[in-house]
Design brief:
There is one protein chain. The protein has 214 residues and is an alpha/beta fold. The protein has a single domain, classed as Rossmann fold, CATH 3.40.50.300. The chain is 29% helix and 24% strand. It is built from six helices and ten strands; from the N terminus they run E-E-E-H-E-E-H-E-H-H-H-E-H-E-E-E. Helix 3 runs parallel beside helix 5. The longest helix is centred in the last third of the chain and has 14 residues. The radius of gyration is 17 Å and the shape is globular. The model has no long low-confidence stretch (mean pLDDT 93).
Length: 214
Amino acid sequence: MQILYRGIEVQFRGMKDPLFRIGERRIESGARLLIRGPSGTGKTTLLHITAGLLDPHKGSVAIDGKEISSLSEGERCRWRRTTAGLVFQKLNLLGHLTALENVLLGSPAGETTKEKAREALTKLGIDDLANQLAYHLSLGEQQRVAVARVIARSPRLILADEPTSSLDARNAELVMQTLFQSTGKDGTLVVATHDERVLTRFRDIWNLEGGEIR
């Protein structure tokens, strides 16, 4: 799944200068890309623009030739449901639902079966927590549920924002291994993180700093 950024400029109200600019950058199909940089430089914003959750002030994002920024809100929602999976930094779990129910909730129209949901939880080592309310889970367990919610759908594009921030070394490695495997041969994985432990997994790294990618 190829991603093409053209003439991107992001500037929020009240900012004197743009948060960042991207002249033209391409992420090829099958890529495993790490985006790193200090807090506040725009890593999360870049993921949200890629997913069509935010519009850049200028420029466009095309995924497999489809300009996401030109789609209507409804079209973007349908595209995300069929193509993209997002692991949010704010996990967005519903505390009154079980881990299994939260995974199932991430799929439109019941496309994720209980079998697939349980399989995703098993891959992340939390199948024994399937019937626990999310409210009672530790932050690290909740983070793995949020990842399971995405991989259960087998999306061709996974955008993961700090997916290992609350995990110990063993579980961080398990999450990264699972994300790599879940995107498949032609799928694309983009991870934004401060976690230095995962650096060695990536050959492609973008450093977002000072308003540009280096």
